[in-house]
Every structure is written in structure tokens, then in C-alpha cells.
TrEMBL record:
Protein's name according to its UniProt entry: Ankyrin repeat-containing protein
SMART domains: ANK (SM00248)
ANK repeats: 397-433
Keyword Repeat (UniProt): yes
InterPro entries noted in UniProt: Ankyrin_rpt, Ankyrin_rpt-contain_sf
Keywords: ANK repeat, Repeat
Amino acid sequence: MIYVLICIMLVCGLVVYQLMPKLLSYSTSLISKKQDTSELTHDGITNVLTQLGHPKFEGVCYGFTLNWALAVAQGKESFFYRQLHHLRTHQFGLPKTLQQIKEKKERNQSLSNDEMVIDTLPQLGKKICVAQDPLQYKEKYRKLVWQPDINSILKAINADSSVAKHIFYKTHSFLNQDEATEYLELLKRTGIREDVAVIISTADHAMGFKLAGNVWRFININDLYQQDKNKPYFEFSSRNLVKELYRVCAENLQGSRLTVNTDFVSVNPEEKLSRALQNVFPVFPVRTKTSYPERLAFFSMAATQGDMNSVKKCIHSGWSIFSRQRLSDDSPILTAIYLGRRDVVRAMLSTSRHRVNQKRKSDSSTLLHIACRYGGSGIVEDLLNIRGIKIDPQDSKGRTPLMYACKKSVVTEDKKLFNLLFAKGASLSIKDNDGLTALDHALKNEHTLAIQMIEERLEKEACARENSTSRRFKFSETKGTLFQRGVKTISYQSQQPGFGMK
């Protein structure tokens, strides 16, 4: 038995000995691949941002592309590409490199040209984050700003005297690649300038393109340095750019139809461009028979962008703001609420006010529930002004809109939100299925503002009840009954001066 164990141990040792060089080689290759500075991936950029102390983002395609667009509009495109080059080169040790540069500056030593560019990378990182998730940077904006609000974002990330603006936007739906190619050729014919950046986005991804000579320069954070190791962008003809867009957006296609938002950014207004694109090709065929997924994709994208012309066209064509006439997760009106699109929500509700209390299929929440959590006080105010809206509907867990507002977030950190609900009589005593009141939810979520406002409201209600009781008692004693005369000199308040809460 011992002999057998010894043999087994010898065989295992021999196998490990034979495999060790391969394992070490594989491990080394993994490390070298992991630290390949010839590539700059989307994950690589988010990792660098984390190294610089920013929140961990799942993705930063929108913030990245908007900063690229700003650079194009301000004539700083080449400098942006130099920044990307150094971000790629130093992505695995940027904090250390920045510390070395800081020490040189403290010693009054001059920096090389490359070091001066590297020294700007923290600022670029901050601007990408501020553009990617403006809600997280409420203090920077001094108001609630959602991602689609491009002008507010451009103003926040602009560090130059020339002010880039959101000069035009439109939701497009291309029937096929030929139609998309024709659109790009139309842009050329309108004389689009090289300092006009176009952000093209689907429901979950943003990219950018601009004219460069007779070709389109296309940038996609997911495919940097893929066409040329020295250039982070692609250069395509109109036909090839469309092929690339269809490849990248394959998961968002409805058959051969591609639905996207386009946002044009420039320092200079492009009135000729706006006139050429406003009411002409491509126009979504709302009057023809289109499939439900196609309608839903277009309506939701228009709501995302705030494209009011397209939104109104969909509404007037009888398209539902819900989903198949039911409120569900992919309803266009929910898209608008999640993104704080107050004007879009207002337009959508103009023809569906009678359905304002409809409940979502998944959790029985209403528009008011969702607006209290995600939409901001402006949308909540518009909803509460609709006649017949229920102030205390309960979802499948028994929670009211006020309880949703007690979930701490940037959106719910708003006194106006709570005052609106209180003014409409939102109940503080209703309990959910777990026996929790709104105050319990606020305490559970450590929502300090909600706790303060609910406690103040409870105190006011208690005082009001006390005063009401006092008035009723005084009135009864003064008036008397059939069997007893009233005594005008009795006052309940003078009998118990310390009863009221303070």
C-alpha cells in the first residue's frame, strides 16, 4: 500500500515538473497581454479613471465621445489624440507617472512636451466622468442634469473661451444600408464643415464621426487603434462607414432597420445644415405599416434625445406611449421619465391623461412612483397637476410614491419633491407589506432630508389635530346641550397649556 502511494506521488511530481515551464510561460504571456500598451480598450480607460479616484463606471462611451466632439468643435482634435496616445502608453502606471511630474514641477524643473500632455490627463478623466454621468456631479452643474442634456454638459466640461454648442439633433431610422449611405452623402452635399462633430448613438452606445477631406473619420471607444496602431480612429467612405455602423449596432437592428440619434456639435451655427435636415430624408414612415418593435425603438429613441418633432409625430400618429397599450419597462414614457425629459413627458401625457394611474405590469408601480424615484420634481409636479391622479397608489409591495422618494439619491435629495407630495396629501401613515411607513423607509435608507421633512410634517399634522380638538371642545362647552347650558368662560387651551408639541 505504501509502495503504491509512493508511486502515485512520484508520477504527480513528474507531471508537475513537465507542466511547470508551460504554466510559467502561459502566466507570463497573460501578464504581458494584460499590460499591452499597444492597445487602449474601453475597460482600460475605465480602469485608469478608477486609478485617478473616480467612481467605477460600467462604461464611459458617452462621456468619451462628447469630449471628442468638444475637441473637434474647438479645433483641438489633434491634442485629444495625443492625450489618448499617452493614456494608452501609461494606462498601467499613470498615478506614478503623474507623481514624478508633480515632483519635477515642485523642483521648478521644466517638463517635456510629452510630460505636459500627460499632466492634462487627470483633467480629461474628470471631464469624461462629468459628461458620462452628470447626475453624480450635481455640485458641478448646480442643478439636476441628465445625460442627454448636451448643452449643459458642454458648458460644464468646456475650459476654452470658444463655446461649443449642440447645434442640431434628430432621431433617424434607416430602412437599410443604402438609405444610411444616402444620408451620409447628403451631409457632404450640404457642405458640413470639418469642425462639426456628429455623435451617433443607439439606446446603449455612443460613437462619433466627422468629415476629414473626402472621408469620414469615425471614433468608437470599443475599437480604438484597430485600423491603424498610430491612430485611434477609422477613416471610411460613406459606404464603409455604414457597414461599420451596422456591424457595431447589430444587436439594435430591427431586421435591416437601424434607428439612431444624431447630435451635431460645433462652435459655429450651421443654419444651412439644419434647414437641409429638419424636414427631409430620412423621415420615419409613421403613416405606413410598421412593426411594433420598429415603432417602439423609434419612439423610445426620440424620447431619449428629446426630439420633440419626432415625439409629436409619433403621438399624432396614434402610437402608444406605453407598450402594447400597457405600462411596461420599455414604454417610451418611462424612457422619458428616467432621463428627466420633462417636455417629452408633458407632450406624451397631453393625450393620455385618463391613463395616468395605470400600473406597470412587472411591479404595479405607477408613473408617479417612477417619477418620484427617477424623474425629478418637475415631472412630479406635472403629474400631480393632472386631475384624478392618485397620490397614494401602492405597488406590489405596498409602497407608495412617497416611499419611493425616500430612497436616497441625487434626484430625491430635493425639498420641492417632498413639498409637492405633502401639498397633495401624501399619506404618512400607510404601511407597506412589511409594515413600514414612509418615515421607516427614510430611516432605513438613511435619507436625512426625507427624515427631516417627514418629521416636520408629522409635527405639523399633530399640531393641527391638537388645534382642531381644542376648537371642537371649546365650541361644545360654549354651545352647551339640550340638558346643560354652555359655560362661555371655559377654555380647553387654558386648562392644558403644555399639551401641544413644539
